[in-house]
Structure formats: structure tokens, C-alpha cells
């Protein structure tokens, strides 16, 4: 009897709290394993990435005619930093896997028709994440250069290695995640968690948050870099609203048709 009830529950696409927790544990384990494999690759490539991340400091020393160096204050600092770089590289490399696991976790909340859009979500989120990481990589040297321009000319710039690399790596990943958030808005809309009306009702706050985020992430001397990053994020937000509006309109029509249908 219990097995039959469970089977009927699974057929209807409903899951108990325990099943949700088991599903979450499964998704987290797969994501962690993918990140670990990516981190191994990142550990092997850490030297090349290390040099690329160090380049803004070299540019500062040349452009500002000052001494600018990265300092390692602890004995294990360099090794810890290499592990940190490997982790972030693994996080970026394995993004197709953990992004899919996030989408797959929401699948039980979607109807059979809506599940067909999952690959559309996935194939949109992955390029957007990589595009966001590339945008973060592009603006990162400008951020470092501006922040160090406030140092008096007669002083020396010594960068704590852990703080410096933690700052630039988180900047790249944070912008990548920011580019993916509109896709998750659409996913939450398809899961009937948030409506298109709620998305468009918060557009002023969304633009304010986007502008503040890009102003912090790209404090270059000119505002061009800020708008270069903010514009696609605003477009993606309103695109998410458009997709959500079309979906809500279709669902409202379906619900109205079901309500008007005579009971059998």
C-alpha cells in the first residue's frame, strides 16, 4: 500500500520533504565532485593563472612609476593561495555541471511541458555565466588600478597576497553569477514561486542594485566600463520579465480554460 502510494506520488510529480532533502544531498554531492575534478585541473593551471592575475600589479608599477609588489606574509601563504586559485578555477570549469544540478533540483516542481524548457534554461545560463566571468576578468585590472591610484606617489604599494587574490577571484565569479540571476528568475517563475508582476514591480530596485553593483565592481576613472557591464544586466532583467509575462499569460489562459470546462 505504501509503495503504491509512493509510486502514485512520484507519478504526480510530488515529493515529500525527506525526498527533497535526499534529492538536495544528491545534487550537492555531484556538484562538489565536479568542482573537485575542476580544482585538480585548476591546480595544474594555477601557475599560468597566477601570472595573469599578477599582471595588474606589474602594470601599476610601470604606469604609476612606483614600487608595487605582492607580499606573502606567511610560510604557507603561497601554497594556500594556489589551492584557492585551483578552487575558483574548478568552480568556473565545472559550472555546466553545478548549474545543471540546480536546474534539475527544480524539475519536480515543474509540469511535464515546463520540463522541456530545462535545457533552454541550461544552455542560456552556461554562456551567460562564462560571459559574466569574462566581463569580470575585463574590468578587474581597472578596479585594481583605480584603487591603488589613491596611494600617495611617494609611498609604496605592498599587496597582501591572500587579500589581493581573494578580491580579484571573487570579483570575477560574482559578476558571472550576476549574469545568471535573470535566468533563475525565469526558472522561479516557471515553478510558480514568483510572478511576472512581482518581477516588473521591483524593476526600480533591480536597476538600483545593478547600478550599485556595477559601480562597486567597475570603479574606473570613466563611467564607460560601468555602463558596459550594467547595460547587459538590465537587458537580461527585462528579458527575464518578458519571458515570465508570456509564461504567466499562457498559464492564466490554461487555468481559465480548465475552470470553464464542465465537470465530468
Short structural summary:
With 264 residues, the chain is mainly alpha-helical. It has ten helices and two strands.
Instruction: Kindly name the structural category.
Output: mainly alpha
- The ordered string of helix (H) and strand (E) elements is HHEHHHHEHHHH
Helix count, DSSP H or I runs of 4 or more residues: 10
Q: What would you call the quaternary organization?
A: single chain
Strand arrangement in the largest pleated sheet: 1-2
* Portion in helices: over 70%
What percentage of the residues does DSSP assign to strands (E)?
under 5%
Unreliable spans are: 1-12
Distance between the termini: 28 Å
Structure description:
With 264 residues, this protein is mostly helical. The chain is built from ten helices and two strands. The chain has helices at residues 2-11, 17-63, 77-93, 95-106, 112-115, 118-148, 161-190, 196-201, 203-217, 224-260, and strands spanning 68-71, 157-160. It has a two-stranded parallel ribbon with strand order 1-2. Helix 6 runs antiparallel to helix 7 (161-190). The longest helix has 47 residues, at 17-63. It is flat. The two termini are 28 Å apart.
Describe the SSE topology:
Elements: H1 2-11, H2 17-63, E1 68-71, H3 77-93, H4 95-106, H5 112-115, H6 118-148, E2 157-160, H7 161-190, H8 196-201, H9 203-217, H10 224-260
Parallel strand pairs: 1-2
Amino acid at each position: 500500500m505504501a509503495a503504491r502510494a509512493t509510486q502514485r506520488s512520484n507519478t504526480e510529480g510530488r515529493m515529500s520533504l525527506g525526498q527533497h532533502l535526499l534529492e538536495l544531498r544528491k545534487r550537492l554531492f555531484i556538484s562538489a565532485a565536479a568542482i573537485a575534478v575542476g580544482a585538480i585541473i585548476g591546480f595544474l593551471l594555477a601557475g599560468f593563472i597566477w601570472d595573469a592575475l599578477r599582471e595588474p600589479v606589474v602594470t601599476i608599477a610601470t604606469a604609476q612609476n612606483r614600487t608595487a609588489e605582492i607580499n606573502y606574509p606567511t610560510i604557507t601563504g603561497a601554497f594556500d593561495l594556489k589551492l584557492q586559485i585551483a578552487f575558483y578555477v574548478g568552480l568556473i570549469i565545472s559550472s555546466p555541471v553545478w548549474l545543471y544540478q540546480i536546474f534539475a533540483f527544480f524539475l519536480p516542481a515543474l509540469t511535464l511541458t515546463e520540463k522541456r524548457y530545462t535545457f533552454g534554461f541550461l544552455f542560456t545560463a552556461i554562456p551567460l555565466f562564462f560571459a559574466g566571468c569574462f566581463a569580470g576578468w575585463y574590468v578587474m585590472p581597472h578596479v585594481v588600478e583605480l584603487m591603488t591610484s589613491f596611494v600617495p606617489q611617494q609611498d609604496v604599494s605592498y599587496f597582501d597576497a591572500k587579500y589581493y587574490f581573494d578580491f580579484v577571484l571573487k570579483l570575477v565569479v560574482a559578476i558571472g553569477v550576476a549574469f545568471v540571476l535573470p535566468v533563475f528568475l525565469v526558472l522561479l517563475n516557471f515553478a510558480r514561486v514568483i510572478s511576472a508582476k512581482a518581477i516588473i514591480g521591483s524593476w526600480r530596485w533591480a536597476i538600483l542594485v545593478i547600478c550599485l553593483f556595477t559601480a562597486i565592481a567597475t570603479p574606473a576613472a570613466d563611467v564607460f566600463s560601468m555602463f558596459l557591464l550594467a547595460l547587459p544586466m538590465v537587458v537580461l532583467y527585462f528579458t527575464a520579465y518578458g519571458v515570465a509575462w508570456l509564461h504567466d499569460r499562457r498559464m492564466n489562459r490554461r487555468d481559465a480554460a480548465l475552470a470553464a470546462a464542465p465537470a465530468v
